[in-house]
Amino acid sequence: MKKIQISPSILSADFSQLGNEIKKLEDAGADMIHVDVMDGHFVPNLTIGPPVIKALKKHSSLIFDVHLMISPVHKYIKAYSDAGADIITIHPEATNDLSSSIFEIKKLDKKVGVSLNPKTKIDTIIDHLKEIDLVLIMSVNPGFGGQEFMPEVLDKIKDLKKIQKKQELDFDIEIDGGINFDNAKSAIEAGANILVSGTTIFKKNNGDIKRNIELLKSK
Questions:
Q1: 65 is catalytic
Q2: Which of 12, 110, 170, 192 could pair with 187 as two cysteines, CB 3.0-4.6 Å apart?
Q3: Active-site residue identified among 97, 159, 176, 182
Q4: Superfamily name with CATH number, domain 6-217
């Protein structure tokens, strides 16, 4: 079984102190930094672009796990790669040619992630699993932080885990959306090995980030 890793979402951080917030996450034992990029078009919210990621990268040696919720995504892949993304995760619906976009990420020597929205079927990416380093299962509809976890996606993780085992593949399974102390155990038992969490890490236990990360990992 893969080691459980925590990828805190900076969407829930204090945006006026992002550099300091990332340093706190690293000191508290985070395994990577999850950066949600939204364009106000593919999803109904706007967040940050490549210049901000480039600036933040200077504050941390952690892996930058960059989730692109933008469309059309293909033409922006290089910009986020150059900014410092280590993992670039895209949505199948956001590109005209998923194979081409996967190839572009690999060509830039980055890890490839593909994200499935709650209603997106595994079949959408079944032919690409051998080329993917990470599958991100969304347990909320993407766009805003603080939404409630959708337990029905756990069956999708279990199905994906079966396919992974049958095909003898080694991609990571990440889950993002409403992850907290109550549902982290279920997500891990279903097969997820990377937990993305924002509100729980930054807000619970009076903002004790280290304790919150440790509690999520121990589930």
A1: no
A2: 192
A3: 176
A4: Aldolase class I (3.20.20.70)
